[in-house]
Specification:
alpha+beta; 2 strands; globular
Length: 69
């Protein structure tokens, strides 16, 4: 996360963090970043797997997506 938010050329970025039911401090750490940087959005849901998590992230995106890595 530090590497992403510190890149000066990324003035207009959107970072979506999809938490797939983590059991550790992931959400707390991500919330600290989200509070500090407006470009970071956190989405939480029950553990459903990587495919559904990716699709949830795409649905919440505010930009057009041509390709998902």
């Amino acid at each position: 996360m530090d590497a992403i938010v510190k890149q000066k050329e990324n003035h207009n970025i959107e970072v979506l963090i999809v938490d797939d039911g983590s059991k550790d401090d992931t959400v707390k750490i991500c919330q600290e970043y989200s509070n500090k940087y407006n470009c970071i959005q956190i989405i939480t849901h029950d553990n459903t797997g990587v495919s559904l998590s990716r699709n949830i992230g795409v649905r919440h995106s505010r930009v057009e997506v041509d390709y998902v890595y």
